[in-house]
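Lab notebook, design round three. We kept the backbone fixed and only want residue identities now. Task for the bench partner: fill in a sequence for the structure below.
Input structure tokens:
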């Protein structure tokens, strides 16, 4: 789950990372009252899960009430890269002397955590990585050893932060590491990490991505889910207990087994199409599970065809076929469905589909043929 800035800052605050005082506002009137309470100048910030809000007009300084009214009116409802702003975060403005960058992520290839620190903050870090990679100091942290104060100091020094910012940055880096580890995050990022004109270091922005697999030990995360941006399709899938990941293509995918589901995505790509999702229905390809899976895919407006790829090992293909037809009785599905049922009882399964005799449900004998057919339909080239 990706947190929006103010949630990320609340998370940071638990670990003692300094942030500016502020509050949320969902209306212009709320923004005005929060700003008045905080005192001027303030910053009015769009709370959407996307970077580059500043450039898109979603972060504005306001010196007085009239400016808060103006900026809050403009930013609420603003569309930033497809995310419509419904909530603002208003905080006391900071007098910035310098903008830096600090983050922790997992380096899967190295099997270690990775700290990145740079004196080029407040800008797109991917761009810095492209154009001047030497401007980003990197430090691998072994999870068994943890992050020592000396190692934190070394990476801050390597990054070339101004001397007066060193102590503050080291302190924040140690806290950011604790937030990342104990807070079960996949990513904790501060951009910009600022040095203020009066010599303090603090977090002016927050990007936090929580590891969903750790949700069981964080009941407090439920509060975030109320506003954290979760894909609607993923929300529905989760409520139905399905392993689903939303993507942005036009071919809906249902497969049994994570490996087969991933291969199905690859094959759809191979024949020139693009998958709308990953969905693994596991071993239980019965009518209930099929109905749930089809229902979730049905809510996706980009889907033009659905590819069901089942390998019958323990699960029997004829049961799957009956499950699909039973599901179709229960939910209206907008797109044609292409089936590849292979393995145990595949002949019976194809007979069941043929007998059903609907041109909404098509059967193909192989994975590649089914993928081709689904992609042709999705692209309006055939049925
Ligand atoms: P992003 O564009 O989505 O990453 O949003 P940020 O929260 O990082 O804000 C973008 C930029 O706005 C920062 O890099 C700062 O330059 C500026 N900014 C944000 N807060 C303040 C503030 O309190 N004072 C000043 N002077 N500038 C700010
Ligand atoms: Mn930022």
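Proposed sequence:
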């Amino acid at each position: 789950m990706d947190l929006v800035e103010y949630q990320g800052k609340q998370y940071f605050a638990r670990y003692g990372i300094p942030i500016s005082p502020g509050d949320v506002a969902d209306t212009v009137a709320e923004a005005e009252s929060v700003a008045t309470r905080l005192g001027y100048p303030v910053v009015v910030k769009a709370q959407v899960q996307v970077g580059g809000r500043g450039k898109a007009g979603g972060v504005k300084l306001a010196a007085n009430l009239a400016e808060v009214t103006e900026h809050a009116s403009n930013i609420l409802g603003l569309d930033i890269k497809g995310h419509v702003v419904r909530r603002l975060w208003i905080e006391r403005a900071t007098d910035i002397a310098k903008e830096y960058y600090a983050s922790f992520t997992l380096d899967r290839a190295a099997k270690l955590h990775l700290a990145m620190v740079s004196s080029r903050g407040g800008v797109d870090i991917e761009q810095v990585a492209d154009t001047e990679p030497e401007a980003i100091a990197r430090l691998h942290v072994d999870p068994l050893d943890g992050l020592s104060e000396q190692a934190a100091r070394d990476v801050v020094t390597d990054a070339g932060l101004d001397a007066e910012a060193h102590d503050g940055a080291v302190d924040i880096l140690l806290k950011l590491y604790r937030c990342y580890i104990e807070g079960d995050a996949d990513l904790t990022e501060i951009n910009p990490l600022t040095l203020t004109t009066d010599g303090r270091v603090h977090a002016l922005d927050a990007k936090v991505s929580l590891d969903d697999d750790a949700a069981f030990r964080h009941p407090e995360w439920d509060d975030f889910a109320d506003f954290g941006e979760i894909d609607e399709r993923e929300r529905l899938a989760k409520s139905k207990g399905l392993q689903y990941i939303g993507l942005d293509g036009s071919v809906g995918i249902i497969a049994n087994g994570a490996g087969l589901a991933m291969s199905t995505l690859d094959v759809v790509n191979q024949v020139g199409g693009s998958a709308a999702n990953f969905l693994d229905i596991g071993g239980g390809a019965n009518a209930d599970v099929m109905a749930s899976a089809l229902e979730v895919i049905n809510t996706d407006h980009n889907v033009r065809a659905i590819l069901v790829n089942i390998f019958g090992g323990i699960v029997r293909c004829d049961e799957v076929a009956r499950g699909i037809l039973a599901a179709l009785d229960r939910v209206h599905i907008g797109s044609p469905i292409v089936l590849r049922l292979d393995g145990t009882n595949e002949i019976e399964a194809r007979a069941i589909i043929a007998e059903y005799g609907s041109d909404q449900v098509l059967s193909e004998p192989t994975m590649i043929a089914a993928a081709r057919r689904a992609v042709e339909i999705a692209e309006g080239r055939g049925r």
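Keep this in mind before ordering anything: Residues 43, 51-54, 59, 61, 93-94, 96, 99, 122, 191-192, 204-205 surround guanosine-5'-diphosphate (ligand 1) (CB under 6 Å).
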